Fold:
Amino acid sequence: CILFCSGFTTQQSEVIVSALVKIMDTNLDMIYKDMVTKVQQEIALQQVMSHIGGVKKDMIILEKSEFSALRSENEKIKLEFQQIKKQVMDEITKVRADNKLNLNLEKSRVKELHAQQDRALTQTDRKIDTEVADLKTMLESHKLDNIKYLAGSVFTCLTVALGFYRLWI
Structure:
């Protein structure tokens, strides 16, 4: 009627209305196909809930077994870590002891080297003192020899001079 009043013919109005009814029926059929009844929905809900319950049980079982497995694995790792830590501490102690020993050996070598240097220096000082004393003795000896030769030369010159003097007088 609304279409007829708007200027459509009766036949046109009926065709348009029948097309609209078919479209709506088709749409409703599609919607009804996707829809479920309340009973079907409850059955599906019960099935989902039973699946969820089964999954929960499986998860709890897995969680417990996985948790215990993780706990035992964690304990193993802790033990391994403690063993490694002990080995590292032992190695550190060995290295420290070796370093102390090497340091003490080097200190003793350095002390021995200093002692050898001191002995060599003392021997060198003694040799120098001995050489200086020998040189002083030699110098005194040469000094005495020079005095003897000088005295002999003076007396010889005096004797020669006295001899000339006697010859002239």
Remarks:
- The chain has one domain: 36-168.
- The chain has a mean pLDDT of 90.
- The radius of gyration is 65 Å.
